[in-house]
Amino acid sequence: MIGVELNEAYFDQRAGTYAKLTWHVWYAERLVELAELPPGASVLDAATGTGLAALAAARAVGPSGGVVGVDISSGMLREAEALLAESGLDNVRYQKADVTVLPEFAPESFDVVLCSSSVLYLDAAPALAAWHRVLRPGGTLAYSAMREGFPVAMRVFRECAAEAGVPIPDPMAQLGSERASRDACERAGFRVERIAVDVVRRPPLPGDELWRQAVGNPLHPEVPAAAEARYLARMAELGDDPGICDMPVLFVIARK
């Protein structure tokens, strides 16, 4: 996992364009739809980013419910506040907080905890423990997780890095399969009710652009420049595969 400080800087940098990607919007709204939020529910949106899931949740729970979106990134929260102002909703507030600890919230404060698309940046065990603590008995946890080993472009990057002597763990190894999510949730005291599967379709990018994205990701240690040629060659072999950037995803719905 990367540290809170580096995490914040990374997401501050991404904040301005995050909500402009249509797949981010779909991903968040699909999670909220599958969570089946009841009117009047109190919701915590963990790692809210620009508040895409928070806004969808606020519409779902209605004026008698409420949503708190938390994130470590001040930049993301500024963008979230701007989108909230445009939405006309008045049942959302945002707060800066580390979603793997959440000391700001008392036990059993929420009916629902959501986490859309962010578990790859979190250490699963403390995050799940924190979410379990703030949920009321019978409360719902709903999160989305990219399937382990995807997207293909990043799997190839990790393989090339390993060949260069720099092993990089798959960040989705903790939650990126049905079995892994069930086991992790059960250890944290949750019972998984259902797991829906889908695919986020993303257009393929040139190999050199994918390389720049990979080496610029703070989740990744420094990889020798010599690995770039190997990576570009492997990506050229896959050049006709339209799914090299697609993300198979799991939507996990669990109960405390």
TrEMBL record:
Keywords: Methyltransferase, Transferase. GO terms for molecular function: methyltransferase activity. GO terms for biological process: methylation. The keyword Methyltransferase applies. It holds the Pfam family Methyltransf_25. Residues 43-139 form the Methyltransferase domain. InterPro entries: Methyltransf_25, Methyltransf_Superfamily, SAM-dependent_MTases_sf. Coiled coil: none annotated. Transmembrane segments: none annotated. PANTHER family: METHYLTRANSFERASE. This is Methyltransferase. It comes from Acrocarpospora phusangensis.
